[in-house]
Amino acid sequence: MKIDGIPYRSIWLKDDGWSVGIIDQTRLPHEFRIERLTTLGDAAHAIKAMLVRGAPLIGATAAYGICLGLRADTGDAALENMSETLIATRPTAVNLRWAIRAMRELLLPLSEAERVSAAYEKAAQICDEDVAINSAIGDHGLEVFRQIWEAKGKTGKLNILTHCNAGWLATVDWGTALSPIYKAHDAGIPVHVWVDETRPRNQGAHLTCWELGKHGVDHTLIVDNVGGHLMQHGLVDLCITGTDRTTAAGDVCNKVGTYLKALAAKDNNVPFYVALPGPTIDWEFEDGVKDIPIEIRDGHEVDYIQGLDRTGAVSEVRILPEESGSANYAFDVTPARLVTGLITERGVAEASKEGLARLYGQSVYKA
Ligand code: MRU
Q1: What is the Cα–Cα distance from 224 to 121, expressed in whole angstroms?
Q2: Catalytic: which of 42, 173, 196, 244?
Q3: Average pLDDT of 44-70?
Q4: Ligand 1 centroid from CA 208, angstroms
Q5: Residue 126 has what pLDDT?
Q6: Best exposed site among 72, 109, 289, 319 by fewest CB in 10 Å?
Q7: How much distance in Å is there from the Cα of 87 to the middle of ligand 1?
Q8: Tell me: the pLDDT tens digits for 231-253?
Q9: 53 is an annotated ligand-binding site residue
């Protein structure tokens, strides 16, 4: 995507041919800062501290993390250690495991001398594939949006509600949930996006608003509990979110709060779509509520709100009494029965075992 006319991906190989560029997403929207990753430790830190985040981008960063680690040691034991270090960074997004598995399966049979260059090739391939997948999701999603827009009689705006950030910053490019939004906007459909703030880290406010603004897409920030009210009043034509892990039966794990939006959508007959790249399907699990590990993060993120103070400096303020505690569950699971459709790179699937099997059959995406 372009920022002020300059095309960017969220991760790239630097001109030196080995180090890796990323955008520090903890600084947005206040500062556009590029960081350089040079070691496996840098990559692991970037994922854990959420300089990069979003399921597909976590996977791509892990792949480049292995490249950087192999520059220091190409042995089997080192490769195993790198995989463990990276897998320990964040538990929920399955793309991390998928990318590491793809790297290990390619690299382990190779001689040590061949590993570094093969790893860089594979990491670049994972990134390019992610871009192609997300662009295809955008094309299929555009058709869904067009149908809803036509059913609405093409009046007013197509009002879309989204949660968290499933835009190009969460992937290598295009995004998943935002990809059809960009394509609809570019195709002349007058979209307006309700952006859930997405407490506690505010990916909606910080990242989705920033992305949409840079692309000229009309949008309005809302706090997380407003969606139900908007839906009751006919102000949402459809919801679309991303996913960090979708089970083989179509249960969707995404940023905490997604489930409540899906419940409100069901109650108000608002279509609830999930944009799903193939590598985000976990074929080993069926029951998302029971099986998917939910990340529990530091309560500090709940206890303090971050923003710019009057001097323009980034600062944080505490919002609860010193003696009170908090819990910080980062994801929740939306059961398949609440999902209208899964918009994948292969077309729109019913959120069910049969629906996914029909599109993917013998899938190459195994975590
Ligand atoms: O905690 P985050 O910011 O990594 O969570 C991101 C999300 O929940 C996204 O919706 C998901 O990864 C899909 S991104 C295309």
Answers
A1: 41
A2: 244
A3: 98
A4: 11
A5: 98
A6: 109
A7: 16
A8: 999 999 999 999 999 999 999 99
A9: yes
